[in-house]
Model the fold of this input.
Amino acid sequence: MVPAGMAEGAMDVARFFRVHPAEGKFSSIRPLGYTLLGYAVAPIAPVSGIVLNTLAIAGVLMFAYSLNDYYDHFIGGERNSVGNAIARGRLSAAKALGLCCAPLLLLPVLLFGVPPVSFVLALALALLCLVYSLPGVALKHTAAQFAAAPLSAGLLFVQAFLVSGALDAAVLCLLCLVVLNHFVLESLHCLHDAVVEGTYGRKEAFAARVLRCLPWASAVVSAAFAFVHPVFLVGLAFSLIRVVCLRGFDPRGAHFRRLRNVFHPVLPTYEYLAYAAVGLLGGFG
Done:
């Protein structure tokens, strides 16, 4: 039986790195779904390479989420697990920042288990996560906010795929769909926050216009690549569902909550499960 103090300490660490979601936030390991999709559609990789790569990417994600919480606490006064640890005197600000960066120590394991290109992409992901939150260059406070998370999703997918695979037309199509679908989710998230916080302005109005175009873009990509692989007819069907749902879209309208339910991350999960099943059966080469 695990002692109560040890279990509580483990939970505190899990909350700090947002492995265990707290304060109404998503788990930091949730984006590993894109990594798993990359493994599923790639040729079978050595188990050691998959384990080492997953550990390293989980470290990057823990770094990204805890660092974002750190600066949200100090700059925005947000209540979160990192800020709570500092406010209660469990950690100084300097030690908390150091702890946020500690998971990056897992990155060097990639030098022993994956191709160099996957290591480089993992470093690129860590750098993108850094500039997303770092004061002075924080992408989250610029128009690039809408692009950072979708690009991260694409990097997670292709980084995992390249552990054992080589890019081809079908995989590039799937990469495009991953990025476009995440653009939809991120745009809805940012628009919802702006409406709730009363900060809706020109940036958000532009995002709303772009949002209406994204499902059409994914529909065109899916239709074009359905000639390469018929599984992309699934992407076409899901894209058309999004097109219908966004007719007459107004982020300040009463139907916005219902629309967010339709665009819940569960929807693309069903789509990605179809691609993963085909990949596991060897359908992507």
